Amino acid sequence: MVHAMGALAALRTHHKGARLVGLCTGPSMFIAKTLPYLDDVWLDPRGSRWDLRGLWELRAELRSTTFARVYDFEQSNTSRLHFHLMHGLRVKPEVMAGISWSGDIRGTALYHDNPRKTGMHLTDRLQDQLRSAGVDEVLRADVSWAARQVRDFSAPFRMNQPFVMLCLDSETGEHWPVDRFAALAEWFANRKLTPLLVGFAEHPRAAEEIGRRCPDAIDITGKAPLIDTVFLAWAAAAAIGGDSAAMHIAAIANCRSIMLCGADSDPAVNGPRGQQVRVLTRAHLTEIATAEILALLSDLGPAEV
User: What domains does the chain contain, in order, with CATH numbers?
Assistant: First the structure.
């Protein structure tokens, strides 16, 4: 959803006056509802592929509205299922040719026919998909909309002191060891930089362990909404963490970012982009040493004497 921000902005510009509806799963809902590009966001109610009740509810919702066009950003087996829920299992070729579905459904009017698309970075693939559908307003992902939407800064942290964001979230099954986050927190605290533990999910055990080693660390995991996280990224001296939505937001906000990626993350396809982004990749996250990160941040100030 973070990588799709530029594509959604392009659709908002291209389809002036149209009602744009997003369909996504639970983990993406909080981002989708915050972005200024969608008029409505629907939740895929299925608990699993075999959730027949959820499947029936989704089928009824998809057929309740006649969509002039569908943009399938995911291009997966799940989105192919969405197509068949809307149009039936067997669609005649002459009917298929009249369906305005931008994606990976061969035979549809807006079929994204690029044999190299699976190896493209997601941002480039979405731009290529939109161009093939006649959408030429290619826009870069940005978070400037946050400044226009903010009403109140609700995160339990005031940006009146220098700080660094330590993101404890991870979209993959692997996490960087907590003791290494604690070592980073101590290193920053010795340089008068407050270690701020961030993440869209709560991490009480990790935060408690880091807090024991570094009492100066402040835990706001699960407490800062998306817009507040954007403001934190604008003000932070740096952001360090695994492959997560918060880290991608920090990169787009032009925060100095170091993202840690294991075998489950492919930076060439879904890595962060930005002038101040460094990506450290290893087969296992445990192979990334704390010293390797500190070497990239040595200019942040001398240690307290």
Answer: 5-132 (no CATH), 148-300 (3.40.50.2000)
